Records
---
Amino acid sequence: MKFDKSFIFGVATAAYQIEGAFNEDGRTASIWDTFSKTEGKVYNMENGDIACDHYHRYKEDVKIIKELGADCYRLSISWPRIFPEHGRYNPSGMAFYKELLTELKQNGIKTAVTLYHWDLPQWAQSIGGWEARESADWFLSFARQCFTELDDLVDMWITHNEPWCAAILSNAMGVHAPGKKNIAAALKVGHHILLSHGMAVRLYRELHLKKPIGITLNLTPAYAAGNSFADILAASNHDGTSNRWFLEPLFKGSYPFDIANLYAARVGNFDFIKEGDFDVITEKCDFLGINYYTRSLVEFDPMSLTLTSGACSSSPKTDMGWDITPESLIDMVKIVRERYTSLPVYITENGSAWPDIPEDGCIHDKNRIDYLDSHLKAVAKMNEMGLNIAGYFCWSLMDNFEWSFGYSKRFGIVYVDYETQARIKKDSFYRYRQIIQERKL
């Protein structure tokens, strides 16, 4: 199975997960600084104060990306580095990204830059966060500064990473920062994130800038655990809450009514949706990013708000407990193509966590290699089917802070010793390098 010369092979990270330097050069706290230092929220109360110390070691990390041979590096920008206070721009924070992006460019590595990968400034949360409609304007100011100062150094822009996580996982389920458990709040958050996405894309066009710009969704195909009507309904509801709730406003200009009916008793009259919002949200992008890790097997649950809950599965699983189902990625992209868009699709994240143990200075991560190979085969197959997958970004370049799991889960193709900050290339690094060099499996 082959990949043509235009196909982009990349690796991905996110600012809070790797940078460290939490209080340097004017940066103030994000909601993740606050959340991770609140007892009971993150494994062992671990945090991103140091993380992988990428802020100081970025040149070493760029050399690793260069050695890998990746075409493109996906990174995110820390909003509280750029605007440490409401309305106050911090040139020192921007300087870091100029230096990093210049270093990448000088090494022939293209960049895909995500504006928002969950690190909302704490000052913004303190005056309403994404629940406040004004948050879209705060984001637009941040986006404008990044567009005008960095566009010459950037090859692709991504407005938001995984709005489902930033909205539902963070504000309805309480698993991520800011840790709320309020579905009404979560739906406001999701709406304002989507609104801010459309506003940012519109602004980018108004500035007459020409790089591709899009958004990344985490999409999880849902399957019924059984053949009963109730389980099939549960699968439809899971698809609706996880996938359609974000795909349909972006590409059809409305939320799905079946899911809105489920939520209606909890959110009132949806008065946070204003006239003209969907015209903004549907602003045409240049691509769609899809993050894919696993499927969802679900069954009917009358006690759940959405009448659905996870079912037990016999599929092999990663260290996260996630089913390994590369064929489900194909199912998901087929749905995107049939129902939503013909835009180029990038798999902007895909990877697996395993309990890596160094042996004589090496990490023999065969499970990760098998996961990588099987999912890249699915990508190659999709292109043979004409589904137009333009690129693939392996998550992650290196082990890092895995949100509420702290440092207990390792997704990297490069091992990080958090005591010494030593980087050790895993066997999967060399396998991915081989695939990139040969452009085939």
---
Amino acid sequence: MWIVNLALRRPLTFIVLAIFILISGVLCIISTPKDIFPNIDIPVVSVIFNFAGMSPDQVEAHITSPYERVLTTTVEDIQHIESQSLYGIVVIKIFMQPTATLPKAVAQITAVSQTILRQLPIGTTPPLIISYTASNVPVILVGLGGSLSEQELNDLALNVVRIQLITIPGAAIPYPYGGKMKYVSVDLNYQALQAHGLVPSDVVNAISAQNVILPSGTVKIGL
């Protein structure tokens, strides 16, 4: 009961203290940051490889495992690595330590991603690298459908929709998932190749030589 007796003897002190608590509470409510998704300061780098036509077990054996091994050798401050191998695509999430420097981690991952390409299957393209934090979540999911083919829908998503969404400030947009990408499939007759003294690499080189974009037309300057 001593606090009651003290309040009766010094009422003004307790009134001032109550006003101070009220003002402090209002200021704390106003100044406290509010967010639906709390900020989790764990930097994450996502690496996405695409290889059309490869099954998940092949993706895991020929791309995911070699890439994860080389990450642990050359990239600093890795907390843990998560990967998901799907049909023709692999998503590797590299969680860094809270004290890690994200630009440095991205630079190291980018460098090793270019180096590892020589050890991956022929035709593997450089991966898409996206940096974010563990608290980032997708805020929009766009799905395309219609009477068009899967190749045409994939082409529209990659070259039309994605280009328009990337102009949003702060947006990070990966490659579209699903559909079918445009590619050329060539069946070889090994006996016919041997009869002409050729090997499969000669066919690959011939096709690569045909897939060249050259300037055409005329330009008039100084008129």
---
Amino acid sequence: MGRRIVATYSIVGCDLDARHWGVAVQSKFLAVGSVVPWAEPEAGAVATQAYANPRYGPDGLALLRDGKSAQEVVDALTSADGGRDDRQIGVVDARGGSASFTGSACFDWAGGSTGPCCAAQGNILVSGDTVAALAETFHSSTGTLAERLLAALAAGQAAGGDRRGQQSAALLVVEKDGGYGKLSDTLVDLRVDDHASPIEELRRLYGIHDLLFGRTPRSSWIPLDDALRAEVRDRLARLGYERLDEWAGVENLEERVDGEEAIDPVVLEQLRTADG
């Protein structure tokens, strides 16, 4: 049986101010998120695709962890790989350096683009416009790293995308102690394994993820004065709860509840919606 080619376009990026690293990817390939994206906080991120060598992921992160630059990682991985002509890889390092490699045997259109904090690459694409759109959108967009990666992915599809079509997409973003309960480094890990419109579905899932696990700056929380406290208490009572944290736990909003002096406006909106 022949090898499955990960006909893919991906964007590897970082936000050095937020200390986020991540990868977004789309492919006409089942469960692309299980192969392509790799990232480690304070080290960097890797996308491995085409006739993908999955070991580029953990091996690349190990080199990044040792302080190697993105280009040094690409050079080390490809020079040791006899199948490099069939490979494609994008890397961003801990300092925002980037590198991309496309083997000479990758199927057209295939290529990459690099810039500060960004490596974009793709193979079996309609044209090079997809990679150009990935990079340009990443650099021109605002918001969190996850939001910028998703915007780039959508722009890449709008520019043509994988010429075989769409099937799966994934988004991975890491931050040291930035995940659930501040006990995980995985800030976002979402995958759409098989869908007619995987990028749209990925964006929908990210919206839910941001609702449940996103962060509203504490300065934007609403003080619980007597009137608002009474409203919250009454709404909870009508829903069958005595405490806000009890209701929030059932609704998976516990990450947005902290103390009794102020309330996250997202939590307040959801409570008001739940109570009608």
